[in-house]
Amino acid sequence: MKEEFNIISNLIEENTRVLDVGCGNGDLMKFLQENKTKDIRGLEISKEKVQNCLSKGLTVIEGNAESDLKQFPKSSFDYVILSQTLQAFLNPELVINELLKVGKKVIVTIPNFGYWRVRLQLLFKGTMPVTENLPHEWYNTPNLHMCTIKDFYNFCSTKNIKIFKSIALKKSRISEINKANLNYKNLDSHLGIFLIES
Amino acid sequence: MNKNIDTKKIIISNPLKLDCGKEINNFPIAYETYGELNSEKSNAILVFHALTGDQYVSGKNPITNKDGWWSYVVGENKPIDTNKFFVICANVMGGCMGSYGPSTINETTDKQIGTDFPIITINDMVNAQYELIKYLEIEKLFAVVGGSMGGMQVLQFVANFPDKAKLAIPIACTSSHSAQNIAFNELGRQAIMADSKWENGFYSNYKLNPDKGLAVARMAAHITYLSEKGLQEKFGRKLQDRDSLRYGFEADFQIESYLRYQGSVFVDRFDANSYLYITRAMDYFDLSKQYKGNLSDAFKKTKTKFFVISFTSDWLYPTSENREIVIALNSIGADVGFVEIESDKGHDSFLLDVPSFLKTLGDYINSTYKIINERRI
């Protein structure tokens, strides 16, 4: 978690306007508030989590990214962050489009379904993968649209979305993803972090 | 009402031009305060009351001898902690607890003003209360807070005085009174005016009181403050002090008895004309119309932080209407938080013991106070 927060924080310029979509209990918001910018908002679907955020004095709105991002004007945030949430939406493509409208830049992080530990579980055990990063069973997972680093990379190029920076994370090891090492990073990383722009 | 209890009062001498066109001056505004104003004058919270509320937010209400109407929220070690904050609440203009209203005595005739009182609006109420803030010499409030009609006053206050509050918390309210809201208010007014003792509003001249009409108005309104589920769970078809139906029109059911009781205690503390005037003010409230149909424009000049709260079972001021306020604020990039609190207690939730509401509100106010003070905005 900490590494992911650090990477995200390093992608953000100081004193900019940030929206964290699916902000959970506000841990990342709090981290960025202390390290980068005071001007940060959150959107979260769970009432309980929204209340936890508000209790900490964080500016959070209860709402659903799939329907409620529309109320923000175009380019009203310098950065919009979507941390490990894309896979939980009914329509990830729509959400990405909405994010790109609301934010000048968008940071998306993806739990990589192409990670070798994940692949091995399906290959050898023949069951849906359950890992530290993906702890749910197939019957109770909130993750409707799992994807791999390579899937997202390809998605961006098909949809003409500019990738400014793509970073792979394995445990605490950070490396850059590029066209040449894509297949390897897709196998060897548990998390992908993308800074994109429409 | 009309009881000789010492209320804190100021006489506002500045002329105030009302929305109806009439100008008033030298009129009283009654208020109460709790806690101490700190030396920087940075801990003041102005609370706005709802339709039938008054200035007695916390502690014992000297008129009713009951707890103040927001005792769950305001008081020592409560979500709005009076050990820390200086809380101000004024009786709204049009009310009957000492502020300028239809039961105010006209000194030249020595009679109550009655329906010679001008029609007032939420805007007029807020402008009058701003005079109180000036009188208390508070340059900037830490917060303005209120539920229901109190929430409408919060919105109007920030629109009128964009740099006079750091934080605004409108709860269970709307930016524009809906047809359903107006319909219920009209029902209440008609009940009062249909009472033969109303005498066109001059009942006090004849030592009368349209208490039957006012009680019916309160009973009807009270239903709108609850939820179907809450009513069913609390009362169901339970009978009142009897084992079987009596085949008559007495209060067989507990819910009937409860509503009759609510009506009867209300008439002892509230003036029928005040009920007419204040419900009218609510019906006339349409903030977006004041800004040519664009609600966002009401808040364009403000840097005030907003926190909007609604309740799941509130069908009088539903979440959708509270959300419209949030959307208007978001569309201009204002600083706004929002949550819908889970509760079966209907619109009245904001007045009752709803733990997740009280906790979220208290934590939010306290952390925001800390953050704002640290940043020294």
Ordered list of secondary-structure elements with their pairings:
The complex is a heterodimer of chains A (198) and B (377).
Chain A: H1 2-11, E1 18-21, H2 27-35, E2 40-44, H3 47-55, E3 59-62, H4 65-68, E4 77-83, H5 92-102, E5 103-111, H6 116-125, H7 149-158, E6 162-170, E7 173-176, H8 182-188, E8 191-197
Parallel strand pairs in A: 1-2, 1-4, 2-3, 4-5
Antiparallel strand pairs in A: 5-8, 6-7, 6-8
Chain B: E1 8-12, E2 16-17, E3 23-24, E4 27-34, E5 44-48, E6 74-75, E7 80-81, E8 86-90, E9 105-106, E10 111-112, H1 122-135, E11 141-147, H2 149-160, E12 165-171, H3 179-193, H4 211-224, H5 228-234, H6 254-269, H7 272-283, H8 287-290, E13 305-311, H9 319-330, E14 336-341, H10 355-375
Parallel strand pairs in B: 5-8, 5-11, 6-7, 11-12, 12-13, 13-14
Antiparallel strand pairs in B: 1-4, 2-3, 4-8, 9-10
Structural write-up:
The complex is a heterodimer of chains A (198) and B (377). Chain A has a single domain, classed as Vaccinia Virus protein VP39 (Rossmann fold), CATH 3.40.50.150. An eight-stranded mixed β-sheet of chain A has the order 3-2-1-4-5-8-6-7, with helices on both faces. The model of chain A has no long low-confidence stretch (mean pLDDT 95). Chain A has helices at 2-11, 27-35, 47-55, 65-68, 92-102, 116-125, 149-158, 182-188, and strands spanning 18-21, 40-44, 59-62, 77-83, 103-111, 162-170, 173-176, 191-197. Chain A has eight helices and eight strands, in the order H-E-H-E-H-E-H-E-H-E-H-H-E-E-H-E. With 377 residues, chain B is α/β, with parallel strands linked by helices. Chain B has ten helices and 14 strands. In chain B, helix 2 links the parallel strand 11 and strand 12 (165-171). The radius of gyration of chain B is 20 Å and the shape is globular. The model of chain B has no long low-confidence stretch (mean pLDDT 96). The A-B interface holds A 17, 38, 41, 47, 50-51, 54-63, 71-73, 76 and B 305, 307, 326-327, 330-333, 335-342, 356, 359-360, 363-364, 366-368, 370-371, 375.
